[in-house]
Prior knowledge:
- The structure is a single chain.
- Helices cover about 25% and strands about 25% of the residues.
- By secondary structure, it is α/β, with parallel strands linked by helices.
- Strands 1-2-4-5-6-7-10-11 form an 8-stranded mixed beta barrel, surrounded by 4 helices.
- Helix 3 packs parallel to helix 4.
- The longest helix has 15 residues.
- The C terminus is likely disordered.
Amino acid sequence: MTDYLVDLASYQTGINLDVVKSAGFSKVNIKISQGNWYSWSGAPTYIDLATQKGFGISTFHWLDNSASGLVQAKYAQNLIRQYGGPVGWAHQCDCEDTNKPASWAIWRDYVNSMQDFFGRHIVNYTGDWWWPAHMGSNNGAAITPHLWAAPNRGYTGSYTGDDSPDWIANYGGWVNYALLQYGVSAIAGAGGGQISKSAIRDPEVWGALTGVEASSGTRTNDWWIWE
């Protein structure tokens, strides 16, 4: 069954999560940090609220070139610990900064450190408009198999379906998207302005990212040894 997720950051302050849930969204992706210099003060409040209301939790960090990947990872990890993670949570590396774009080394070191911290893969958010221009032919899929972005043709407004060609990525070593961000729009009655909306067509993806089997809620141990 396809699940739906919304992003929450400072722009969504005041959003009504009960309305969000009634609109069919069961998961949230909450911004915790950016670079080594910003943390969203509302993140712990919305993590707690979302948890109480039964949402699946993902956190995200906006990656830039303000510090090394390891420094940014440690900054995000400290916040995640403070906020009650990482057990049962997913994590997204948001890599699309055009003013201070991360290098391949920063991205690689951030993702590797976060995966060691979580004990499983995290998901990378980046677009075909960004990755080839800044990362060239570097193979991100060799580090994490999970990619999240808008369709290559741009936002579709509504979800175009599990069999849609919009799920095809074909850059950075990724063939398909693991999560598809199909639109940015308001949810009637929820507040929070324009909200990014994504689809997850395969529950095993969310299970791999959170370490929790979708059907049973059982913790899994699927980590590997880095070579």
